Amino acid sequence: MAEPKVRVDVAGTTLSLSNLDKVMYPETGFTKGEVIDYYASIADPLLAHLRDRILTRKRWPDGVEATPFFEKNAPRGTPDWVRTVLIEEHGDDGVEYVVVDDLPTLVWLANLAALELHVPQWTIGPRGGIRDSDLLVFDLDPGPPATIIECCRVARLLRERLADDGMEAWPKTSGNKGAQLYVPMRPTSGERASQYAKRLAADLSREYGDLIVATMAKQQRRGKVYIDWSQNNPAKTTIAPYSLRGTARPQVSTPLTWEEVESARSPADLVFAPDTVVTRLADHGDLLAGMHEAAVPLPH
Question: CATH number for the 5-124 domain, one of 3.90.920.10, 3.40.50.150, 3.30.70.3420, 3.40.50.2000?
Answer without folding.
Answer: 3.90.920.10
